[in-house]
Fold this sequence. Notes:
single chain, 108 residues, two-stranded antiparallel sheet
Amino acid sequence: MLGEIARSGQGSCLAVLKTFGAKPSPGMLSFPMEGVTLALDFPNRKSRTHRLFERLDQIVGEAKGRLYPAKDGRMPSALFRTGYPELERFSAHVDPAFSSDFWRRMNQ
């Protein structure tokens, strides 16, 4: 990921690296899973930044990782679905009268 970011010529003004242990999260859509998480903030340089994010999404998917929905405003629906295997079970508990931009985007 860092190589792709460097090749793009873009940089993050904030970087946070955390390690999560093997203790499973009880929530159906909990973000933590065993491994390392890297949080980055980028200035929006429109299509240039979008291309970088598409490449980073690909790397995350290939690594069987996931993005943190509460901190990502542009996550692709497919990456959400593969990253959160309990999504279908969770969806059964969603009130159909309730909606949000995020939920509509993830269920296109």
